[in-house]
Structure prediction request, 934 residues.
Amino acid sequence: MTARPRGPVLDHGNALHEGLGGAGVDPKRLEGDLADRFRAAHAAVEERRRTGEMGFFRLPGDEELAARSRAAADDLGRDVDALVVIGIGGSALGLAAIRDALLPAGWNELDDEARRGRPRLYILANPDPDTLTALLPRIDPERTLFNVVSKSGTTAETLAQLMVIWSGLEAALGADGLPRRLVVTTSSGRGPLAELAASRGLRLLPIPEAVGGRFSVLSPVGAFPASVLGVDIDELLMGAREAAARSAHPTLAENPAGMLATLLHLADTELGHPVQLFMPYADGLRGFAYWAQQLWAESLGKALDTEGRLVETGPTPLPAFGATDQHSILQLMMEGPRDKVVVFLAPEAPRRDIVVPPVLRDYPALSYLGGHTLFELLQGERRATAEALRRAGRMNMTITFERLDARSLGGLFMLFQIAVAYAGALYGVDPLDQPGVELGKVLTGGLLGRSGCPDPEIPPVASRWRM
Amino acid sequence: MTARPRGPVLDHGNALHEGLGGAGVDPKRLEGDLADRFRAAHAAVEERRRTGEMGFFRLPGDEELAARSRAAADDLGRDVDALVVIGIGGSALGLAAIRDALLPAGWNELDDEARRGRPRLYILANPDPDTLTALLPRIDPERTLFNVVSKSGTTAETLAQLMVIWSGLEAALGADGLPRRLVVTTSSGRGPLAELAASRGLRLLPIPEAVGGRFSVLSPVGAFPASVLGVDIDELLMGAREAAARSAHPTLAENPAGMLATLLHLADTELGHPVQLFMPYADGLRGFAYWAQQLWAESLGKALDTEGRLVETGPTPLPAFGATDQHSILQLMMEGPRDKVVVFLAPEAPRRDIVVPPVLRDYPALSYLGGHTLFELLQGERRATAEALRRAGRMNMTITFERLDARSLGGLFMLFQIAVAYAGALYGVDPLDQPGVELGKVLTGGLLGRSGCPDPEIPPVASRWRM
Prediction:
């Protein structure tokens, strides 16, 4: 653990009037009405934090919960070749973000030594038979740890895959062998998976009741598999605590999460930028961008505000990846409708770097690259893209942080979770619920004959059209 | 090769007035003004197809070009453990789509036998040193085939990584060894990579001049690596030819690509749905969705129309994945702003399937799943999600096709390419250019000291803000 005097840096010059030739945000408002508005949002969030309704605030300080993840990893996660996590949405995206950021690229292709004896990782999110049939022959039940993750314990995609795995495990190990090989992460004490764990003697790692799926990465949902994989979860939690401390103040100018929420809320609701790109320039942040997309979309995409009025609100979060997507959606960002705001994300220093060697000197189209490092190139592309967008009058901002490690990742998780809580208050919606996904679950249940789910009576299709 | 009497089916009932309770498209217009509008778009595209400007139309019938890819694969692609493709954007996305759709999941983790002796595949798109440093120690220059792909031959991200590889290859094999191990795919006869290939005796696979990066998947850009990997490129091209034949008619009701383009153009420009989700329910179509995103964004996101008038137009294509993203952005799709249209994509039958075994009968929350197959579950989720959106008055449509294989994938590539050509005509923009990405390239060049690129003079940041 090294001393880390400061958190990320937000460069929002390209979101303000001066930088954009009059577009973007009037900076005076950040000390005026926007500061007032934020103060009210802060108070609303503070109240829900205090009552414990927003359970994610408590996770970084919950030593006992962290210890349970660590103990389970120590007891069951040694001497296994593979860790198979069965979970979808909030039960998978946080772990994928941790994997992408903190394990070497291509982890599953590394040999045991390069993995420091830690297992390969498979995340079974989508119940696609192509994916599962390709995986099953390659895992040895005797050498694999399974972790089924569902807050409610009723997620159809997860339970169906669990049943396939269960049947295979029983056949290979007998019913007695299951507790060594299957860990259940679910809401403490409630729901079908909790019952299953209790009756079959499976280890249960609890998700606190007040922690929803998309806010659960710092609970055992993320911490247990991370610990099995050798990630230092103390560093993750410390980074999260530091970020929470930095984003506690009711004054907008002193609250980073508040500034992020305020600028993005304003971009959507007043400046006409509902499409919000989270665009890291680091392959390690791919998973983080998808995690943030879920956090934003499910928390802010709401039909009703907290007073029950129809608002149908919420920005559209769009993950993008630099420099790759400069060759995909940058054209649209530069020249298309002015309905977008970009949040660039990048470390200030590489973990490792590669100097482009001075070969092919006779080719000026190549030789200018010699002597630069790949990190310089990648960061140069980021700065150039931000500047090109600025010159085109397109609002963007950049979050940089010292380097990508467990501590900074924990900080980013917490920064974005707190920001979305503030954003919920600014939009006037409840960021903790997701009522809109229920109908699809009931209809699916009806199609599959689940008790309590009526036949969905999907009308016959009138307009099928042969292509 | 099996007889295949028909192409995909478009179900657009959930995009029409009746299905949506008056929202969506008035079906009478499909035989009225929209048919007229399409007839003009068809004529404009037909003209550019005839002159050869739209070179992608000619690729499926270019036997000679396909033969060059196959011959290069036969000569150089045998007895290698790894194929490393260095390319970004249109030089990478089509191949990733082919990989995801046509190779077994987890290809690189399969043993030689399961890969039928074909190599592992690495696509070096982003110049992230983390990714390259993790890969380099694991590839043996003597057993690896490299393919550098850049239409212009000037792509900085690609050339920088090529120089790293070049230096390593020269050290390991000597300059004489390079032609056995490095294939160049670039514009025929022009540009730095073509010069390099000529002077160093490297095999060059040409990209026809009139084929842009995002339209190049059926050129050697996709066909050569696909052939090395054992994909039947004849089937890909046949599927593309069949799709082109199905989408040739000037009458809207008889032109599938025209119908797709017309509905999506109308959704954006008249119905207020600029966010357009491409949402496959098949893990194998992940890469296809990203390929389609680039195709849509770069082709339609334009500042100027073909008359030079400022229009700043283009929809925002958003890849999403069922059932996974039902647990991420479905909440926003169901309840947020009505600015979205969803295009579901799915095969009608699985390639393989898994029956959920009837275990855990005492748990009704699980037992109802027993006896169903995973494919039934996945397709049930898709139908339920489409129906839930319909009931919420949210426009969506579904493209299904018999099964996912090389022939259907080739057909999907062509269907979408033709559709975007029509959409360009409907928007009144040129779908073949991408002028908006040039500024970023010049600024990057300036930062790296490339000759001809001035110092970018990025203004000092006024608003750096410590988080």
Summary: The domain at 62-231 of chain B is CATH 3.40.50.10490 (Rossmann fold).
